[in-house]
Specification:
The complex is a heterodimer of chains A (about 425) and B (about 250). Chain A has about 425 residues and is α/β, with parallel strands linked by helices. Chain A is about 20% helix and about 40% strand. Chain A contains eight helices and 20 strands. In chain A, the strands form two sheets. In chain A, strands 2-1-5-8-10-12-14-16-18-20 form a ten-stranded mixed beta sheet, with helices on one face. In chain A, strands 3, 4, 6, 7, 9, 11, 13, 15, 17 and 19 form a ten-stranded mixed beta sheet that branches. Chain A is globular, with a radius of gyration of 21 Å. Chain B is of the alpha/beta class and about 250 residues long. In chain B, the strands form three sheets. In chain B, strands 6-9-10-3-11-12 form a six-stranded mixed beta sheet, sandwiched between helices. In chain B, helix 4 packs across helix 6 and helix 6 runs parallel beside helix 7. The chains are: A alpha/beta (about 425), B alpha/beta (about 250). Chains A and B meet through helix 6 and helix 7 of A and helix 2, strand 7 and helix 3 of B.
């Protein structure tokens, strides 16, 4: 027993030793997280939350110190044809000099998380959602954060142009541990695009934590595009808090990465909220992608809609775990959840697990999951009209993915994602 | 146009077509009738290239080419069209996108440039009118949420768009009320010409009041056991199929 526990400690310590000391988040946050980190252990074999996704790959990898660039041309990482505000994180460090934030309207702040004033609204919310007492990767992110961005859209303000977080890894075997904090105050409105991209082909590691506060009647739409590289390790924790009558939508599009884990946690704490979470994971090679969502319906009269779709080729593995927790206080909840997968090869697999925990009696909750192959009858129908077999399959795949992709309301971004998918999978889009 | 010679086909161990012969020329309309299980739909499926069937003997020549040697898409590109008995719903694929892809693949096969978007839309408008299909249905997902009648009209709309040499209508009348039947038949009649041929597969005579055939064949136990003109269909309507069956058994 003692031997095993010491060994575990060593693994954890060896893992932590790879990270550089950080002074990004306020000292109180770091100290607090450090305390938790001492008590927390790395996910183990028997840990249900990590059942299908072992963090061994992360824990056993060796990483390098970040490369510094005086300058980097970011034009190829923009969304083509999109007029947007842009905030660049290079190897996990916010780079104001590379960002394009001129002309932000009054009442909209986009700042280096390192510079948040102790008495600001930011500090009030920072690290209140990320669950560092229970989530070891949140705690690591708090202690060893490489940098980050804090955003506040003040009461009643509308950001007309989308705000694009461009997260870039340019270091071979580099580490990035960014922290994002976004606050949409009462009646505020904004759209955020968050892209994760590597310019190197080696095993980079991203441990990103995002805290999102959506206050009364605010409206926030979030598109997250993960296309780092085929070897990247990517861990993403989003922690969302919604107040009454707020509207939050998030699309998670995962296009590559050899090991990706998304932990999306949403707490709906006020009445008459709308929440929409959609995701697409078209996978190939030896990719392993795990989407864990946890939706807490705490207040009554709220609606949530969840749709995740996977297309799995080669030896890819997909995991979907969708927990919907309806508190006793959340009467008249209307929750819909669906996970659908198309498996294109005998060696690909999907583990899907819906978890509904309902403690209120007057609710409408539905969930379903389907995993299957192509509809042969549909393929024959298309071929009988002169469409070649390959294009017939492409049309069906595109239609399948389209139900998720149509949730991207920023048209140039939709075009970009279509383009990325068609390049990667040779689909006609 | 198409010559079917001693065609034998089976599914699993079950032989369904047992030496079928049929010769169809441009400009002709043939009706194939017969009791349930006689092999009517199998014939339609085999000609369209459905892979569930194994051809054990015989040949099919379509415009001088070996039809059985072609993939389903090449058969369509050569001008063969099957109106499905049960049209498939394809969520997420719009009728318009589907037809544009089909038309352009057929054009590419023939060495033609893709159709200009403007011409394509004009064609959609013109052909949708033929079967009284609203623009709304034309832009919706293929057959998704369509009523039975709308699905069959959509088949004929596709036929009109693709302008095939040989169209096989597989029980297109099944499940149609009289108004829908009239619309479908009217659409088909407008597509009749001396350049193309139509095969109407049906269990009932009713459709043949509207699409008047030049020849009527009775299929029984995988063979054509009787052929005649449109009067044969009326006789079948009156007397049923028993007298045919008896004739074959004897």
């Amino acid at each position: 027993m003692i031997g095993t526990s010491t060994e575990k400690m060593d693994t954890k310590q060896r893992f932590l030793n790879q990270f550089l000391e950080s002074d990004v988040l306020p000292a109180s946050v770091r100290e607090n997280a450090k305390g938790h980190l001492q008590l927390l252990s790395l996910p183990a074999h028997k840990d249900e939350y990590w059942k299908y996704t072992r963090p061994t790959k992360i824990v056993n990898s060796e990483f390098s110190a970040p490369q510094h660039h005086d300058f980097l041309d970011i034009s190829e990482f923009k969304v083509p044809g999109l007029d947007a505000f842009r905030a660049v994180l290079l190897n996990g460090v916010f780079r104001k000099d590379l960002s394009e934030l001129d002309g932000l309207p009054a009442g909209v702040e986009v700042v280096d998380i390192k510079d948040v004033a102790p008495d600001s609204a930011f500090v009030q919310h920072l690290d209140t959602l990320a669950d560092t007492s229970k989530n070891i990767f949140s705690a690591i992110n708090a202690v060893y954060s490489t940098g980050g961005i804090a955003v506040r859209v003040a009461k009643g303000k509308v950001l007309e142009k989308p705000l694009h977080f461009i997260h870039l890894q340019t270091t071979d075997n580099g580490i990035s541990q960014p922290r994002f904090l976004v606050i949409a105050e009462e009646n505020a409105q904004l759209k955020v695009i968050q892209t994760f991209k590597s310019t190197v082909a080696t095993r980079t590691f991203t441990n990103s934590v995002t805290e999102i506060v959506v206050q009364k009647n605010a409206n926030l739409e979030w598109d997250k595009i993960q296309y780092e590289n085929d070897e990247s390790l990517h861990l993403n924790g989003e922690f969302v808090w919604q107040a009454e009558q707020s509207n939050f939508r998030i699309n998670t599009i995962t296009l590559n990465g050899v090991w990706v884990r998304n932990n999306l946690n949403i707490s709906i704490t006020g009445e008459r909220c709308e929440t929409r979470l959609t995701g697409l994971y078209p996978l190939s090679g030896h990719q392993h992608v795990d989407n864990h969502t946890h939706l807490n319906h705490i207040a009554p009269h709220c609606e949530s809609y969840e749709l995740y779709k996977g297309i799995l080729a080669d030896n890819a593995t997909g995991v979907f775990n969708g927990k919907v927790h309806v508190y006793q206080s959340a009467q008249k909840t209307n929750a819909f959840q669906q996970n659908a997968n198309i498996v294109l090869s005998d060696d690909a697999q999907v583990n899907t697990k819906p978890e509904l925990e309902i403690y209120a009696d007057d609710v409408r909750c539905s969930h379903g999951c389907t995993t299957g192959q192509f509809d042969d009858e549909a393929i024959f129908y298309l071929r009988a009209r002169g469409i070649g077999e390959r294009n017939a399959r492409n049309l069906l795949l595109y239609a399948f993915a389209g139900e998720v992709l149509e949730n991207i309301t920023i048209h140039p971004l939709r075009d970009m994602v279509d383009q990325l998918i068609s390049e990667r999978f040779n689909w006609e889009m | 146009m198409i010559n079917i010679n001693n065609l034998h086909a089976r599914i699993g161990d079950k032989e369904i077509l047992r030496g079928l012969n049929l010769d169809i020329k441009a400009g002709e309309v043939h009706a194939i009738m017969g009791p349930n299980g006689s092999g009517k739909s199998t014939l339609a499926s085999v000609l369209a290239g459905r892979e569930d069937y194994e051809i054990t003997a015989g040949s099919v020549t379509f415009d001088g080419k070996d039809l059985l040697d072609m993939s389903p898409e090449d058969r369509a590109r050569e001008g063969l069209f099957l109106a499905f008995q049960y049209p498939v719903e394809i969520p997420g694929v719009s009728n318009i996108n589907f037809l544009k892809t089909a038309i352009n693949e057929i054009r590419q096969y023939k060495g033609l440039d893709p159709m200009a978007a403007k011409d394509f839309l004009a064609l959609v408008k013109e052909k949708a009118k033929l079967v009284e299909l609203s623009d709304n249905l034309a832009s919706r997902s293929v057959n998704e949420g369509f009523s039975g009648g709308e699905k069959k009209r959509n088949e004929i709309f596709q036929m009109a768009m693709l302008d095939p040499k040989l169209a096989i209508l597989d029980e297109t009348d099944s499940g149609l009320d009289i108004d829908a039947l009239r619309i479908v038949a009217n659409g088909v009649n407008q597509l009749r010409s001396n350049q193309n041929a139509i095969v109407v597969v049906t269990h009932y005579q009713r459709l043949l009041d509207y699409i008047v055939p030049d020849y009527v064949h009775v299929l029984y136990k995988g063979r054509i056991v009787k052929s005649g003109t449109k009067e044969l269909a009326l006789e079948l309507e009156e007397r049923g199929y028993d007298w045919i069956k008896e004739g074959v058994e004897v």
